[in-house]
Design a protein that fits this description.
By secondary structure, the chain is mainly α. It has 19 helices and no strands. The radius of gyration is 24 Å and the shape is globular.
C-alpha cells in the first residue's frame, strides 16, 4: 500500500470521526431542552469516552490508568450530578461510564493483534478456554432470562477482561508498568484524603446519596457516624481498592514514590474508617502471599516494613477521629461466636446452598448483585445481595459453569507461578490469592475489582510479552544482518 493511499485513509477516518462528533453535538443540542437530565448524563459519558478513544487509537501508555480512574471516580460524579439536579436516580448513565471507557481497549487490541498469535496462546494455555466458556454460558442464560440486567452484568464481566488481551498484544516495558502502578497509588492517596474529608464534614452530595440510596449498612448521614466510602458507591469497594494498593506500597519502595511512608499511613487510616473487616483480612493475606512468593533475600526487609506500619498505626489510630468505632470493630475479631455479621454469613451458606443445588443451571449474568435494579428485583435463589462470592459464582454460572470458572482461575494461578521470579510474579500471585480470599466475603470478578485483578495478573505475562517480542525482533535483525553479510561475501 502506497504512502499516499495510507494518508488518504487516515484523512478519511478523521473526517468521519469529525462528522460523527458534529452529529452527536447536534443531537445533544436538540434534545437537551426537553431531556436535560438524560443529556447531562450522556454528555459526561462522551467527555470520558473521547480521551479514551483517542488514547486507544494512539496506543498511549496512560490508557489503563485513565480507565482505572474512571472506575474509581465516576460514582462521585454521579452523586454530584444527582445532587445538583435535586433528584436521586437509582440508575444513571454515568454508571455505564467506566464500562464504555474500558471497551475502548478493543481498538488498541485490533491494532496490535498481529504482535502475537492468540491462537497459539489458547492452544498452550487452556485457562482462557475454561474462563471464556463459563462467561459465555452465563451471558447466554443472563441475557435470555434477565434481559437488560443481564446485558449490564455481561459488560461488567467482559469489559475488564479485555485488559488481559490488551496487555497480551500491546508490549509494555518495566518503566511503563511501574508508572501505571505509581499512578494508581496516587489515586489511592486522593481517595483516602477525600475519604477523610468526607468522614469529617460529610459534603452535601454525599449526604444526599446516603439519605436516598437506602443503604443502612453505611450508617447515619452525619459526620463521624457513617462508614467512609469516599468516591465509590459504598464502603466495600473503596476498602478493597485501598487494601489492594497498600500491598503494593508496603512491599516495594519504588511503588510508593513519591509519597512514601506518609502515604501508607494516610491510606491505611482511611482503610480503617471504612470499618470493612474483610478488607483488613485480605490485606494481611495479600502481604503474606506476596512475601512467600517474592525473590529470595528480600523477605526480611518486607517483614520489617510490615512491623513498622503496624506499630505506627497502633500509636496513630488512637489519636484520630472515629478511633472508638475502629477499636470496637477490631474487638469483634475476639469473639466470633457473638459476631452478628459472621453468624449471618454462616446462615447464608446453610440456607442458600440447597437453593443453588436445586437450580444447577444458574441464573446467569444479571441475576444477583447491583444489576438486579434493572430487572424485576427477583433474583435467582433470592440472592439479590450475596455476602459470599463462592455462592455468587455458582448462582450465576451454575454448578458446571462455576466449576469451569474456578478450574480456569486455578490454571491461571499455575501459569503465573511458572513465570520467572520477579516483583510482578509475586504481585500476580498475591492478587489471585486475595481474590479467592475476598470471595469468602462477597467479592467478585466484575467491575472495578476485575479491572485491578486482570491488570495486576497480566503484568507478569505482559513483561514476558516484551521479552518475547524483543527476542523475535532480535532474531529477525540478526537474520537480516547475516543475509546482507552473505550477499556481500558472494559479491566479493
Amino acid at each position: 500500500m502506497s504512502d499516499t493511499l495510507i494518508q488518504i485513509i487516515k484523512l478519511r477516518n478523521k473526517f468521519l470521526l469529525l462528522c460523527a462528533l458534529i452529529v452527536m453535538a447536534a443531537l445533544i443540542g436538540f434534545f437537551t431542552p426537553s431531556h436535560y437530565e438524560l443529556m447531562i448524563q450522556l454528555g459526561c459519558l462522551l467527555v470520558a469516552f473521547i480521551p479514551a478513544f483517542i488514547m486507544s487509537l494512539k496506543d498511549h501508555t496512560l490508557l489503563l490508568p485513565y480507565i482505572v480512574g474512571c472506575w474509581i471516580f465516576s460514582p462521585e460524579i454521579r452523586r454530584i450530578i444527582d445532587w445538583l439536579l435535586g433528584e436521586f436516580h437509582s440508575f444513571s448513565l454515568v454508571l455505564m461510564l467506566p464500562h464504555v471507557v474500558t471497551l475502548t481497549l478493543i481498538f488498541s487490541i485490533i491494532n496490535n493483534s498481529k504482535n502475537r498469535s492468540l491462537k497459539q496462546e489458547l492452544h498452550r494455555n487452556k485457562f482462557y478456554i475454561y474462563i471464556l466458556i463459563s462467561y459465555i454460558y452465563a451471558a447466554i442464560i443472563g441475557v435470555a432470562f434477565n434481559k437488560v440486567a443481564g446485558i449490564y452484568d455481561l459488560i461488567g464481566y467482559f469489559a475488564p477482561a479485555l485488559i488481559f488481551l490488551y496487555l497480551f498484544f500491546r508490549p509494555f516495558n518495566q518503566h511503563d508498568l511501574n508508572k501505571m502502578i505509581n499512578i494508581l497509588v496516587g489515586y489511592a492517596l486522593i481517595v483516602s484524603l477525600y475519604g477523610w474529608f468526607q468522614y469529617l464534614t460529610l459534603p452535601a452530595w454525599d449526604q444526599f446519596w446516603i439519605e436516598n440510596a437506602n443503604m443502612k449498612s453505611i450508617g447515619k448521614p452525619e459526620p463521624l457516624e457513617f462508614r467512609m466510602f469516599s468516591t465509590m458507591n459504598s464502603q466495600g469497594p473503596v476498602a478493597v481498592f485501598l487494601s489492594t494498593i497498600l500491598v503494593l506500597m508496603i512491599v516495594n519502595k519504588k511503588w510508593r514514590r513519591p509519597i512514601g511512608w506518609l502515604g501508607i499511613l494516610i491510606i491505611t487510616t482511611a482503610l480503617m474508617i471504612t470499618l470493612v473487616r474483610s478488607a483488613w483480612v485480605t490485606l494481611v493475606i495479600g502481604l503474606i502471599s506476596y512475601i512467600l512468593f517474592m525473590e529470595k533475600g528480600k523477605k526480611l526487609g518486607k517483614i520489617i516494613s510490615i512491623v513498622i506500619v503496624g506499630f505506627s498505626l497502633f500509636f496513630i489510630m488512637s489519636k484520630l477521629p472515629g478511633a472508638e468505632n475502629v477499636s470496637s470493630r477490631f474487638e469483634t475479631f475476639q469473639n466470633i461466636q457473638e459476631d452478628h455479621s459472621f453468624q449471618e454469613r454462616i446462615q447464608l451458606i446453610i440456607s442458600a446452598t440447597p437453593q443453588i443445588l436445586s437450580n444447577p443451571i444458574g441464573g446467569g449474568f444479571g441475576s444477583i448483585g447491583r444489576s438486579t435494579i434493572l430487572g424485576d428485583n427477583e433474583a435467582f435463589a433470592g440472592l439479590i445481595s450475596v455476602d459470599n462470592g463462592y455462592l455468587g459464582v455458582f448462582s450465576t454460572f451454575g454448578v458446571i459453569g462455576g466449576m469451569l470458572f474456578f478450574i480456569g482461575i486455578f490454571m491461571l494461578f499455575r501459569k503465573v507461578i511458572q513465570q520467572k521470579a520477579n516483583e510482578y510474579r509475586a504481585l500476580a500471585i498475591s492478587t489471585i490469592i486475595q481474590l479467592l480470599a475476598s470471595y469468602m466475603f462477597g467479592g467478585g470478578l466484575q467491575g472495578y475489582q476485575a479491572v485491578l485483578f486482570w491488570l495486576f495478573v497480566s503484568m507478569v505475562l505482559a513483561k514476558d510479552n516484551v521479552g518475547n517480542i524483543h527476542s523475535v525482533g532480535a532474531t529477525y535483525w540478526r537474520g537480516d544482518l547475516e543475509e546482507k553479510s552473505s550477499n556481500y561475501k558472494s559479491r566479493c
